Amino acid sequence: MRTRLGVMLAVCALVVAVAPFIGPPMPPDARDFILWQLRIPRTLMALVVGGTLSLVGAVYQSLFSNPLAAPSTIGTTAGATLGALVAIVLGARASLWGGLPLITGAAFAGALGVSLLVAAIAAGRNVRMNDLVLAGIAFSMAAGAISTGVQFSADSAELLTAMRWTLGHLPQVGYQNIVMLLPIAVVSVVGLLSLTRALEVFISGEEHAESQGVNVRVVRMASIGLGALGVAGCVAWCGPIAFVELIVPHIVRRVLGVSRRVLLPCSVVVGASFLVLCDAVARIIFPGKETPVGLVTAALGTPLLIYLVARKPS
Amino acid sequence: MTSLLEVSGATVRKGERALLEDVSLRVAPGDFVAVVGPNGAGKTTLMRVALGLQRPDAGRVTMNGRDVGALSPRERAAFLAWLPQRVQVSEPITALEHVAAARYRFTESHRRSEEAALVALARVQAEALASRPITELSGGEQQRVAVAALLAQEAPLVLLDEPANFLDPAQQLELYALVGQMWRSGLGVLCITHDINVLAHAMRTGSEGRIRVLGLSKGRVAFESHYDAPDLGEHLGRVFSVRMRAVEVENRRVFVGMSLERGE
């Protein structure tokens, strides 16, 4: 167990260290620029986004006692998509304060808006976890329907932009955007990790957890709220990057076990380096083209997860 | 200071139907209160009300005079611990982790929680199970680990909800022997069951009179008695709609249910 943990952390560190150098060869005169202005900011963005998304996935899976729970379960992704679409149709080039693209701001607002509605329902005394999943699905469908309506009124250029956005991508960002996302991600990650102990007690059921002293409603709302905050931040900048939040916690759980004290922090580390790796792979499969990283996460993560499930049935 | 759990006049309604009507009971450390009744009599509702998981529509539940609704979950956990019918974990955590999780109410390091969990496991002779995934244990072993969790919570009162429901006779006996030990160590026990005979495993000869029996039928208190009361059999028979005969076996009183029709 301890050696497995060590090996996993070493592999993650190695991936992150090597990733910026993977890609098409850099011409000597542009080397510094490509490395320091393009690849390293992208790697940093992937670290932040991958770590946050994976942790939120792990927390939601624990909270809902449901291996399929993900930020999309409670409507975060659908809300973000709706926000982004509205912004794209209104005029994607506009930017809000401080160079923040309008799409990013609108996606963030949409993601947070829908998730907070679900979190408000979670505050109810007699609400069951399945009710929340249903509410999330209902809100997702409503947001999806509105999105379709918005798309209907869009022209083809806007539709293409929207399609690209929904694939999930790591934008060519400068350090400024990372600085804007970082505090959101830090609040979400630190807040969620501080709930580890309560989530351990949740394993034997909500009512049992409450009888053992857990304030179930507070933990539920805090988990959903902090998770939604983190995911809204990530989705706002990168679009809905598929599968990371679903696959990474399952990989960690298969390799290192289900103990929350290992699963949650390791999901952050593994998720961060997994997305860094996917980004590096995206650079080399179609050199010179911007392959959306969402395609790579699905292409890499799915076989890995299936292999782990098939090898060690639980 | 004694810790007194008091349910007074608790009524819970679901639509027109009363799940619980005007039920009162008191449990203090050292008490053994058995709540018996057929399925659907309101035992589970009473349990949830006592734990503060459900608010009664009328009446109140107090812990040391303070309303449970006004207490935080942590304060309630310091007062009353709950042993469910069976351990239902959603993940294969180890027995040690399961017991250590019961220490949630304490503000302490993880190492301290694990030490206390090991002590609790040792008290139920389950140290050997500590590192086994709880999902791989037998039903009897799981309940033994659950009792360890109950002890690790260090509450003065414990609520047992048909804890032997899914156990075979040997495991039932073993579990109730543990319950008896907890009782004799000074804990107050509130035990919900539809099988009065399992209580015989928890007591030593001579302690029958100290076991209070509360019969529940259709949400109401049908009788209040003691395990050694001469008319307990009649009371039980009425609650369960059978004839109940008290029989002495190896100095222990057990009750046998007989069909009503072939009565004398």
Give the helix proportion of chain B (percent range): 25-40%
Mean pLDDT over the residues of chain B: 90
CATH topology of the largest domain in chain B: Rossmann fold
The CATH first-level class of the largest domain in chain B comes to Alpha Beta
Taken as a percent bin, the fraction of beta residues of chain A is: under 5%
Q: Could you report the average pLDDT of chain A, rounded to the nearest whole number? A: 86
What is the C-level CATH assignment of chain A? Mainly Alpha
The biggest sheet of chain A amounts to: none
Overall body shape of chain A? globular
How many helices of chain A? The count is 13
CATH architecture of the largest domain in chain B: 3-Layer(aba) Sandwich
Number of DSSP E strands of chain B: 12
Element-by-element helix/strand order of chain A: HHHHHHHHHHHHH
Structural class of chain B: alpha/beta
> Can you tell me the residue ranges of chain B where pLDDT is under 50 for at least 5 consecutive residues?
none
Rounded to the nearest angstrom, the radius of gyration of chain B is: 19 Å
- C-alpha termini separation of chain B: 52 Å
Number of helices of chain B: 7
Task: Briefly say what this structure is.
The complex is a heterodimer of chains A (314) and B (264). With 314 residues, chain A is mainly α.
Strand and helix layout:
The complex is a heterodimer of chains A (314) and B (264).
Chain A: H1 2-18, H2 31-63, H3 76-91, H4 102-122, H5 129-152, H6 156-167, H7 175-193, H8 196-202, H9 206-211, H10 216-238, H11 244-256, H12 260-285, H13 293-311
Chain B: E1 5-14, E2 17-27, E3 32-36, H1 43-51, E4 58-63, E5 66-67, H2 73-77, E6 80-83, H3 95-101, H4 110-123, H5 139-152, E7 157-161, H6 169-184, E8 188-193, E9 211-217, E10 220-226, H7 232-240, E11 243-249, E12 252-258
Helix pairs in contact in B: 3-4, 3-5, 4-5, 5-6
